[in-house]
Amino acid sequence: MAKAAKATKTKAPEKSYTFVYQGTDRKGQKVKGEVSGKNPALVKLELKKQGINAKSVNRKLEINIGGAPKVTSQDISIFTRQMATMMKAGVPLVQSFEIVADGLDNPTMKKVVLGIKSEVEAGNNFGGALRKHPQHFDDLFCSLVESGEQSGALETMLDRIAIYKEKAEALRLKIKKAMKYPITVLVIAGVVTAILLVKVVPTFKDLFDGFGAELPAFTLFVLAISDWVQAKGYILLILIAAVITGYKEGRKRSAAFNALMDRVTLKLPIVGDISYKATVARYARTLSTTFAAGVPLIEALESCAQAAGNTVYRDAILRIRDDVSTGQQLQFAMRATGVFPSMALQMVAIGEESGALDSMLDKVATYFEAEVDNAVDGLTSMMEPLIMSFLGIVVGGLIIAMYLPIFQIGAAV
Predict the structure, then answer these.
(1) Angle CA(364)–CA(366)–CA(372) in degrees, nearest 5?
(2) pLDDT band at 162, cuts 50/70/90?
């Protein structure tokens, strides 16, 4: 019985590695490259099937300082576009994976693509292979690929997904651009101010001690700040680190905190308008892509809710899904939420009446993406003089505070 139990015990699957090979092809020409496999013997056998006589097969040493690079949304967008291009050119699916993987700079993404290739070679479909990497490919992506496979139009579907991913990535980068510039300048301003308070101001303080005269109130105020920063500045650093860490952890772990921050973001001046338009554009783009792919409206709305990026709109879209499932028209369900602009509602109404809902939603997405682009450019143009003024006031104020006593002494003489 023990032997029988031992015999039926399942063996853990072997881990795949990257191997570097050198050899000759069918024409006798030297070739070399990299291939994924479980051990050198299986790699040599696989290369032989491809007409390559491998002279040496060695496992590639992977040295990662600070961990392997992460797979970004841009990596997924590039992968999708390249796969769409390969399929349109008539390249077989498995060979497309190999070509795309060879051109990827991110080793982690390359490993993911080769893993998908192995799954497809083992007999799984493309969508099923993608579902084994949920951290990189969401349910919407996998569902659209499976829809393309079932309808026999995978290359067309990949092209639609590529357009969707590229538009979504462009939108994300626009919003990131709007936030990155002012934050970067403010951080630099904080660092410069800290250096002045810790290194420069104490030098002037030693000079003022020899004057024996009463210092201006502004100078005394700056000297008090400098003393506090030198003595207890670490408290401020700890507080800033705690706030940033708390914000990140709250975003990761608390649904209530996420809902609160999303509501607050929508109400902020300028930034709230950008977030509002970006969310509407994301909703319209996702619904247009899924509906055009033949996904039923109820399922398409569920995908939109997952991709909304804002809990206020996610809840609104789920309410729309429930209303539509009872037979209500999409335009009326959207209007009842009170969170969509009239332009989007009118375009959806026209689309439903004309039978061209996907086309109208695409126009809505394009319009609001352009609105986000204009708003970001306007914000950047407005922030530049404001930030320059802020830097001038902070740095110039510190310099004036240090030179006021010198000016007073000069005037007295």
Answers:
(1) 100
(2) confident
